[in-house]
UniProtKB/TrEMBL annotation, chain A:
Gene: thiH
Domain Radical SAM core: 70-311
Enzyme class: lyase
GO terms for MF: 2-iminoacetate synthase activity
Keywords linked to the UniProt accession: 4Fe-4S, Iron, Iron-sulfur, Lyase, Metal-binding, S-adenosyl-L-methionine
Cofactor(s) required, per the database record: [4Fe-4S] cluster
NCBIfam families tied to this protein: thiH
Keyword Iron assigned: yes
Magnesium listed as a keyword: no
InterPro entries per the UniProt record, alphabetical: Aldolase_TIM, BATS_dom, rSAM, rSAM_sf, ThiH, ThiH/NoCL/HydG-like
Name the UniProt record assigns to this protein: 2-iminoacetate synthase ThiH
From TrEMBL, chain B:
Family matches, as Pfam families: ThiS (PF02597)
Taxonomic classification: Bacteria, Bacillati, Bacillota, Clostridia, Eubacteriales
Natural source organism: Heliobacterium chlorum
PANTHER family registered for this protein in UniProt: SULFUR CARRIER PROTEIN THIS
Coiled-coil residues: none
The protein's name in its UniProt record: Sulfur carrier protein ThiS
Automatic annotation (TrEMBL), chain C:
Keyword Flavoprotein among UniProt keywords: no
Gene that encodes the chain: thiG
EC id: 2.8.1.10
Pathway as given in its UniProt record: Cofactor biosynthesis; thiamine diphosphate biosynthesis
Protein name: Thiazole synthase
Gene source species: Heliobacterium chlorum
UniProt keyword rRNA-binding present: no
Major place of residence: cytoplasm
InterPro entries: Aldolase_TIM, Thiazole_synthase_ThiG, ThiG
Cellular compartments annotated: Cytoplasm
Protein keywords: Cytoplasm, Schiff base, Thiamine biosynthesis, Transferase
Xref: HAMAP family: ThiG (MF_00443)
Thiazole synthase ThiG domain location: 6-248
UniProt subunit comment: Homotetramer. Forms heterodimers with either ThiH or ThiS.
């Protein structure tokens, strides 16, 4: 069964109607369970559950401590290129936007890597705009080869690819891939992605599964929160993670909670998500998927990020610049999105230590041979 | 002629059909299953099979088991 | 109505029993009549040519589902052979795959069990594999076409109870198929424990057959299985493990 079939299975199930009928008793019953069924998870995304955030938080905190300890992984993105062939209404890299376009060459990639490595980070996420094709894969492999000496974990967040390309990247040294479906609702997806290969909903939807098949260690998924009715989107994100985890036991499935507050000029998120709602999504996901890593980006302001640490987060980005070449030039114009937490890696580490958490910049070490 | 029945080598004085043989051994054919020379033989064929020299029979039935 | 469907058959009773080890097999009829047990396992053996013994089928009510096991099989090939023989005996197309080559602990061989399951499921059997509880094997059995998985609670015939509880719990959570706890269940409370966890059914043989009063023990098991099932369906109430907050974690949302 494909994940799309699972989505289709909910075609005649009216999620908002279900959510409005959830009772406090059902929320408590769901909170009581060791293993949550999809329906319990949905229950925890209801307005009724919003009244029980503290109880959810206590359990989420316990589960996270139990499975991960007081540990937060730190990483940062490295933007390689902002050339993009898609027109996504909410994204600055939209090919219709008049921004400065840039693609780092080998020398620049090395300089960026060096600048990031100097902050102590060992886990990197390489990003590009969407430019599908063999040349782009070759470029990415070249970049991986260049940065390998600086980092012990290399992730990619690029356009969806086929299994063979993921395999090539894995051989080159990539151990994780991140891809957000952006929005699971197919009609909304179609309306937000005006043109470009990204219009192919299914190719994107199945990309995480192809990465699992290519045996990447970690696959990170998410919905861009704010694009559509958040409980529905959070629900399908969780189901997607659960589907992948059940089918690919050897892959670590992670979930991200990117929240869009404002996009390019002229775009306003249709279903903005409040802080309390973001917390509810995080907690419900943690209770549904107790062993999944959950990533929080610097889109969120410093203070909120501090508060979210004990609630189930396991990975945070730090020292972020979303502009291509931002680490060498020190500018952040024409970035992919605006970040809110501008603290340095060191400051984020100090915050974690002060909360009794251990910041981890390196999860494993490669042994030659 | 010699036949092997449930691992035991036996001498049969005369040729007989499988069904007659089972009855003669006081077995209830309705609750048996028979493997004839390594092949499962449907009960409908038991009256047509003439046991011959060198044949191997496995005669099984259900017993208590968990 | 809470029914268990296996191989297209609706079962009302979630206690399966084995017919082995009864000192007096004529107890099986009354046990079935009193408990409403619907599924009974049997084994296939060479007939005793010296005659004498009454056939076990004469003691099993006709409307029961017969679940022949493949006991005696040491590999997939032998299990397949026994299953085909059982089917030829005209007792339906259910089979409990049991592949054991370990004579000391009688533990099932999951690899061979998977192979046999694949072959027999393809031939249209309703395959219920007895297995060592292991998530990967259970998933493989699912893919191989099993109708349920039957993890052991403890080694066969030991009456030691639900020793594999933590892993069986994971199988129940992760498997689409019904999980039937087979082997090792020694007491009704242990059967109830398995059912409370969400097991679809339990299979009990030794604990009933070798009890001082098998009929009374079968009744006790039947009630325990029902009680456990009801408890599972009723969803246990709240315990307060997480409810006593030492310090609030979401206070910042109100500020």
């Amino acid at each position: 069964m494909s994940f799309h079939q699972i989505i289709e299975g909910y075609k005649d199930f009216h999620i908002p109607a279900y959510l409005s009928k959830v009772s406090a008793g059902e929320v408590k019953a769901a909170l009581q369970k060791d293993f949550l069924k999809p329906q319990d998870f949905l229950t925890l995304l209801s307005p009724a559950a919003a009244e029980h955030l503290e109880a959810m938080a206590q359990k989420a905190h316990q589960l996270t401590l139990q499975h991960f300890g007081r540990v937060i992984q730190l990483f940062t993105p490295l933007y390689l290129s902002n050339f993009c062939v898609n027109r996504c209404l909410y994204c600055n890299f939209n090919s219709g936007n008049a921004i400065g376009r840039r693609k780092l060459d080998a020398q620049e990639i090395r300089a960026e890597a060096k600048a990031i490595a100097a902050t102590g980070l060992k886990q990197i996420l390489l990003l590009t705009g969407d430019v599908p094709g063999k040349a782009a894969v070759d470029y990415l492999i070249e970049a991986v080869t260049l940065v390998r000496e600086y980092f012990t974990s290399i992730g990619i967040e690029v356009n969806p690819m086929g299994v063979d390309d993921y395999r090539r990247l894995a051989q080159a040294g990539v151990d994780s891939m991140t891809i957000y479906q952006e929005v699971y609702n197919q009609a909304v997806y179609d309306s937000l992605h005006l043109s470009g290969p990204k219009k192919d909903y299914h190719w994107r939807l199945n990309a995480p599964e192809r990465a699992c098949q290519a045996r990447l260690r970690t696959v990170n998924i998410g919905a861009l929160l704010g694009l559509h009715h958040w409980p529905t989107e959070a629900f399908f994100t969780g189901l997607h993670a659960s589907y992948l985890q059940n089918k690919y036991l050897d892959t670590e499935i992670n979930i991200s909670l990117p929240r869009i507050k404002s996009g390019p000029v002229g775009y306003q998120p249709q279903s903005p998500v409040s802080d309390a709602e973001l917390v509810q999504i995080l907690l419900a996901l943690r209770l549904f998927m107790p062993r999944s890593g959950i990533t929080l980006s610097t889109r969120e302001p410093a203070e909120l990020r501090n508060h979210l640490v004990p609630l189930g987060i396991t990975r945070m980005s730090a020292g972020v610049n979303t502009a291509v070449g931002g680490h060498i030039d020190g500018h952040s114009d024409d970035g992919q999105f605006r970040i809110s937490d501008e603290r340095s890696v060191d400051e984020v580490q100090q915050m974690l230590i002060s909360k009794g958490y251990q910041p981890v910049t390196q999860d494993w070490h490669h042994i030659a041979g | 002629m010699r036949v092997t029945v449930n691992g035991e080598s036996l001498e049969l004085s005369e040729s007989t059909t499988l069904l007659d043989y089972l009855i003669r051994r006081n077995l209830n054919p309705a609750v048996l299953v028979v493997e004839y020379n390594g092949k499962i033989l449907h009960r409908d064929h038991w009256s047509q099979i003439q046991i011959g020299d060198g044949d191997t029979l496995e005669i099984l039935s259900f017993v208590g088991g968990g | 109505m809470d029914k268990l469907i296996i191989g297209g058959r609706e079962l009302k009773n979630r206690l399966f029993i084995g017919s082995g080890k009864f000192a007096d097999e004529s107890l099986i009829g009354p046990i079935v009549a009193q408990t409403g047990v619907e599924v009974i396992t049997v084994a296939l053996r060479r007939v005793d040519l010296s005659g004498g013994k009454e056939n076990i089928l004469n003691y099993i009510p006709k409307d029961c589902v017969l679940l022949p096991n493949t006991s005696g099989a040491r590999n997939a090939e032998e299990a397949v052979r026994i299953a085909r023989l059982a089917q030829a005996a005209g007792c339906g197309n259910w089979v409990k795959i049991e592949v054991i080559s370990d004579n000391k602990y009688l533990l099932p061989d999951n690899n061979e069990t998977i192979k046999a399951t694949r072959i027999l499921a393809e031939e249209g059997f309703v395959v219920l594999p007895y297995m060592h509880p292991d998530l990967y094997a259970a998933k493989e059995l699912e893919r191989a076409g099993a109708a349920a998985v039957m993890p052991l609670g403890a080694p066969i015939g030991t009456n030691r109870g639900l020793k594999t509880k933590e892993i069986v719990r994971i199988l129940i959570e992760e498997c689409e198929l019904p999980v039937i706890v087979d082997a090792g269940i020694g007491k009704p409370s242990e059967a109830a424990e398995a059912m409370e966890m969400g097991a679809a059914a339990v299979l009990v043989n030794t604990a009933i057959a070798t009890a001082g009063n098998p009929t009374m023990m079968a009744n006790a098991f039947s009630q325990a299985v029902q009680a456990g099932r009801q408890a599972f369906l009723a969803q246990p109430g709240e315990t307060t493990e997480y409810a006593r907050a030492s310090s609030p974690l979401t206070g910042f949302l109100r500020s």
